[in-house]
């Protein structure tokens, strides 16, 4: 159990990651600027405490929508798969699911545009559809597929729903209480809120998740660690570092709108 209050940094715990150095990153939502700053912080952190370990970095989903640079974020994730000096794992979020649904059926999934899809289309240079013309949703979808690199679509289609390391399980939204991890369904892993957030007992593992936020601070509980801090609105993107017996948070903030944005290759 936790040996310090959630307001203290770092937090002590008896949980293990089997000797690994693990970082988990919350919902990026098109904030390439914050993501690169956070990765730079992680790179510096690894230099200070890596001790020869190759770090594992788990991204907890929701790379697209709401923020202005979804296309750039996806390009960066693809670059990381082969160039990063860490072992990356990319989880699927509900916003990736909505984007794929729009690609599959633009009419049935047109609600995606009202929850961040417009910004994603614009990040690819797609002209937004006319809501009064149903056929225009197909035109925007086709234009998106023309402009989107095939590697972006392949990434979206192959994202994982969960990842486990030691005493921790990483998901996007949470898990259904009372259901073993191996029997959790995609709908809950991607969308669950209240039933998971209000659950007071321990789960099979400590759940590290994004999806739900109410401030620019992470939520640390005995049974879960919430690392979505509303980056698209708060300007704060959060990661958690997990080591055996220790939990600590790192954050990236945009202090000045004109601050230069490092590239991914410059941070890793």
From TrEMBL:
Domain Calcineurin-like phosphoesterase: 22-212
InterPro entries with a match to the protein in the record: Ap4A_hydrolase, Calcineurin-like_PHP, Metallo-depent_PP-like, Ser/Thr-sp_prot-phosphatase
SUPFAM superfamilies from the UniProt entry: Metallo-dependent phosphatases
Pfam families recorded: Metallophos (PF00149)
Residues in the signal sequence: none
PANTHER family, sorted: METALLOPHOSPHOESTERASE (PTHR42850), ZINC-DEPENDENT ENDOPOLYPHOSPHATASE (PTHR42850:SF4)
Protein name: Serine/threonine protein phosphatase
Lineage: Bacteria, Pseudomonadati, Pseudomonadota, Alphaproteobacteria, Sphingomonadales
């Amino acid at each position: 159990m936790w040996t310090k209050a959630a307001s203290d940094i770092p937090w002590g715990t008896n949980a293990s990651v089997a000797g690994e150095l693990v970082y988990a990153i919350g919902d990026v939502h098109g904030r390439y600027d914050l993501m690169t700053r956070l990765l730079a912080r992680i790179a510096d952190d690894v230099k200070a405490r890596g001790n020869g370990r190759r770090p594992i970095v788990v991204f907890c989903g929701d790379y697209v929508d709401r923020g202005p640079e979804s296309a750039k974020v996806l390009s960066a994730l693809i670059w990381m798969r082969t160039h990063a000096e860490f072992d990356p794992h990319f989880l699927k979020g509900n916003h990736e699911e909505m984007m794929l649904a729009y690609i599959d059926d633009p009419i049935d999934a047109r609600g995606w545009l009202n929850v961040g899809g417009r910004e994603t289309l614009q990040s690819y240079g797609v002209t937004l559809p006319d809501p009064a013309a149903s056929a225009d949703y197909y035109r925007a979808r086709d234009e998106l597929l023309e402009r989107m690199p095939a590697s972006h679509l392949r990434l979206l289609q192959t994202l994982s729903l969960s990842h486990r390391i030691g005493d921790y399980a990483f998901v996007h939204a949470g898990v259904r209480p009372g259901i073993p991890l191996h029997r959790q369904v995609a709908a809950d892993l991607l969308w669950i809120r209240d039933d998971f957030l209000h659950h007071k007992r321990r789960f099979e593992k400590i759940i590290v998740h994004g999806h739900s936020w109410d401030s620019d601070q992470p939520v640390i509980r005995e049974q879960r660690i919430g690392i979505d801090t509303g980056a698209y609105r708060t300007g704060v993107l959060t990661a958690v570092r997990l080591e055996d017996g220790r939990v600590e948070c790192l954050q990236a903030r945009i202090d000045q709108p004109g601050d230069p944005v490092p590239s991914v290759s410059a941070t890793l």
